[in-house]
Amino acid sequence: MQHKQRQHTKHKQKRRDMAQESIVPERAKLVISLIILQLCFAGFHIVSRVALNIGVSKIVYPIYRNIIALLLVGPFAYFMEKKERTPLTFSLLAEFFLLALVGITANQVYYILGLYYASPTFVSAMQNTVPALTFIMATALRIEQVNVMRMDGLVKVLGTLVSIGGATVITLYNGPPILNGTNSSTESSSKMQSWAWGCIFTFCHCLSWAGWMVLQAPIVKKYPAKLSLTSFTLFFGLIQFLCIAAFTERDPTHWQIVSGEEIFTILYAGIISSGLVIVLQTWCIQKGGPVFVSSFQPVQTVLVAGMASIVLGDRLYSGGVIGATLIMIGLYLVLWGKTAGARYQRQDKEETLTKHLLEGNTSSQECPTTVDIP
Predict the structure, then answer these.
(1) What pLDDT, in 10s, does the model give residues 83-105?
(2) What phi and psi values does residue 67 have, to the nearest 5 degrees?
(3) pLDDT (tens digit, 9 = 90+) per residue, 134-144?
(4) Which of 158, 164, 215, 261 has an alpha carbon 20 to 30 Å from 82's alpha carbon atom?
């Protein structure tokens, strides 16, 4: 009998060890994938700045990028989501058009202009304010409820204020340089930079990105086929960009790709930033959840700062570091608040369900007594 118990204990321990061994590699895969994801995002900032430095048109660049992205995402959406797509209506198409206007056209135009007038490190750091801006918009539209009497509500508000404070510091204060840059491209790129316009356009880019996420939430409920929704958004965004180009890019030479650098930057923007990133990010969210994925966003800023100094010769200022640190702290506070808020909601639902079950049992016990009264 004791021998059987020992064998049973050994089998249980072996199963536990195997489970732990399978969990660790899965977590390691997720972390490696998230680092690769942030590396792809960081590379996009650098590649886009290189494209601007070599003279690629600010309108033609996103048009080519969105064409490649649509060609990549469209076929997958068509074949993989046949059962998930709901019938199209004029109202849905109008919402897709609005989503494209905010999330594709305005978002990408302001991004390119912000990158043109500022620096990749600044743009990447400012993008960490998007969760806080999304929280403000969602609260204003009453999509998200905030209970300031509870810890999660207070932390979300505090995180938002810290993020905005960091954005203010990074905008108004440069401070002494920490990294002076490594090559002569600093002089040529600095001629394009106008800090005030860079701040304005980058902030508008972050607002557009936040607005796109807020608008997307109710549309996904009506149209749950996410890849198809992305394809429609890219399609309408492409039409909007072509309409803008009809007035701003009439010179045929601006549409010509004349060098290997231009080909590389456009292919990277389309294939890596709009193709691989979508697949990788979806997988990471499925495995780790949106909050865990969002928590790796600051890694991108660090990578961009290093890459911009090496590749572009950009300077890194102490004011930027202080502001970026505050924005990151604010980001983590907002993410913690959202996680805690979701936990409170689950607890409230469980308590409500338990209460209803108890009331149901009580009423079922009292029912026979009431029926038996003559």
Answers:
(1) 888 888 999 999 999 999 998 99
(2) -65, -50
(3) 888 888 887 77
(4) 215
